[in-house]
Amino acid sequence: MNTTIIGYPRIGDLRELKFASEKYFRGEISAAELENTAKTIRRYDLELQKNSGIDIIPSNDFSFYDGVLDTAFLLNAVPERYTALGLSKLDTYFAAARGYQGDKGDVKALAMKKWYNTNYHYMVPEIDDAAEIRLTGTKPFDLFSEALESGIKTKPVIIGAYTFLKLARYKGNKTAADFVNDTAAAYSEILKKFSGLGAEWVQFDEPSLVKDMTADDIALFTSLYEKILPNKSGVKVLAQTYFGDVRDCYKQLCALDFDGIGLDFVEGKKALELVKSNGFPVGKTLFAGVVNGKNIWRNHYAATLNILGELKKYASDIVLSTSCSLLHVPCTLANETKLDDSYKKHFAYAAEKLTELAEIRKIISSDSPLDTAEYIRNQELHNTPRSGRNDAVRAKVAKLTAKDFVRVPDFAEREKIQKKCFDLPLFPTTTIGSFPQTADVKAARKAFRSNELSAADYESFIEKKIAECVALQEEIGLDVLVHGEFERNDMVEYFGECLDGYIFTEKAWVQSYGTRCVKPPVVWGDISRAKPMTVRWSVYAQSLTKKPMKGMLTGPVTILNWSFPREDISLKESALQIALAIREEVLDLEANGIRIIQVDEAALREKLPLRKSDWREDYLDWAIPAFRYVHSGVKPETQIHTHMCYSEFADIIRDIDDMDADVITFEASRSDLTILDVLKENNFRTEVGPGVYDIHSPRVPSKEEIKAAISKMKERIPAEKLWVNPDCGLKTRGNAETVPSLKNLVNAAIEARNENC
Ligand code: GLN
Ligand code: ZN
Predict the structure, then answer these.
(1) pTM score
(2) Which ligand has the nearest atom to the CA of 666?
(3) Topology of domain 2-73+114-123+140-342, CATH
(4) What is the DSSP string of 428-470?
(5) Residue to mutate (ligand 1; options 482, 491, 733; most atoms within 8 A of CB)
(6) Cβ-count burial of 91 within 10 angstroms (0-12 exposed, 13-18 middle, 19+ buried)?
(7) pLDDT at residue 649 tops 90
(8) Pick from 681, 641, 425: nearest CA to 550
């Protein structure tokens, strides 16, 4: 059996690519220097995979920003507004990724969306009626050749034709079906080129096949590959699926002329069953995703051997693989110097997963697998009971009943009460919570963590930042203020650190989008609140102003979704444990005079199962109650806000209303406020603040632009239900763009308010 992986993290062990890219954006290094850093990372990763015993090593999994954006550039699917800027190739690419504001023009970035059920984000390709899909890029070929030069014949990885067309947004009248011929021709060309370069395997990533597929989808998929696969020119083509199973198209997938089929036996609930009941086509290679590409726990070899034992009955040629790209896990445990070994021995990051694959290969090819040292060691690890049990918490969760999830009085009654006691102007303005985490904030935190700054000095530094932030917001004229979240490195890690049951890593960075990385904490044991987490900062901030100060918390679903979860208890159980802890904090804030509390559920949509049939039972039936439980105990006059980073919640809009918050703010500007129609159609009850400008980009929105957004909002939502705010927190931005942006926002709201009277 050979081993392979679907893709490797591309940011570098110590986020070298992030730092180099950001330097490049700031004009501190040249394009050539950035390219050099990239090359070094790629070479290092290739060597690592080779030395770890990976037989089929991927290439083109590297990206300067995002693989879908790379594919759009490869296929000439780039809107003219970017090419027309007349920038270099690299800068045109970054303009599409991040927006551009400079002497050559002013354009917004492409829309960004969550990548399936992960916290990675991809750039949404835009295809208009005039688009000519054809092969224009060279990156996959360049990277293949680069690896070949260093002696490694790689398996190039490219987003597949079906997934690409499904992910694109069509701006004109044409749809995916209109681009089948051109797209198939471009992919055929890709195969021809790779054949010329001597590639053995080419991997087409087709994660869209694990979603619910209609008959039209299946037709689109088959018609593409019926046109592409006759042009294989001797290259072997792997259809790689991940994030679930392919129950809607397994037969078609097997019938097409692919040489390899990649299935996910970790997240694919029915993957094994599909193989068992339909068999696996003779002569093809099964790429078996058995090592979890999303979580950090060590593989349980006994369970994996069971799966492989079954698969061997149906497929004669199996390649051991990961369940998805390793992009979603951190690079290497080697840099986790502080974490105790009693925890660490349970972990496997990307580099360690490579070794796991090699070990599984060794075990399975042994005459006596269960006697191999690797197997025995693994069994011992999995037989050791883990610490962290809290029976009191478990008992509380077990005792929850239906009425614990209901806030009284009902929404309409509370809205009346709150309108009266807050007496906010029409279109109240606010922000989502964080203010720019400038270099001084990061430096102070670092100094504090390394004991160079005393706790007292650090705290007075944070207070000074809060005071400045409050003064700034008053000067700008915002209506509902925030303390700025300077004490937080991250909206989940911060809470994790205050909760018992969590453990932390030092360097477990995972790419979230572009150069942004997150460091998810690890749910190790049962969760409980060790101490108040935010009260002192919120109370201090409120003491500085007469305006309402929002208390700022992260909700249980998001905390869980942005952590590495346990696999020994259910997600529901973990979510309710966290909900218990956050509820204590909510009540504490309220008792200390905080009258508006925002409980962010930025990641609520993210883990919605990809298939509709799994939505309720696997997710919504516990996620929505977990949120409701957090705030069901507050007084009617306490206003509960929530925030979501992702506006694509049309399909669960009723569930979101059913979270029973008083106000929700969400990301909307990158998707042109398209969510408004959905809110209107569904008679959305919760007050809303659809983000009026995109904070992922450094450009400053004009007052007119924001007014136009407010007008659009007003046409669909009753004015008295509307809030005006940016898309998301401002922590990744600088003050240079934040201050003018917020001034424009407030002035736009004031003008709209005056016009409305
Ligand atoms: N309150 C958080 C912030 O402003 C929300 C961030 C988020 O939604 N990702 O940073
Ligand atoms: Zn957000």
Answers:
(1) 0.91
(2) 2
(3) TIM Barrel (3.20.20)
(4) -BB--SB----HHHHHHHHHHHTTSS-HHHHHHHHHHHHHHHH
(5) 491
(6) middle
(7) no
(8) 641
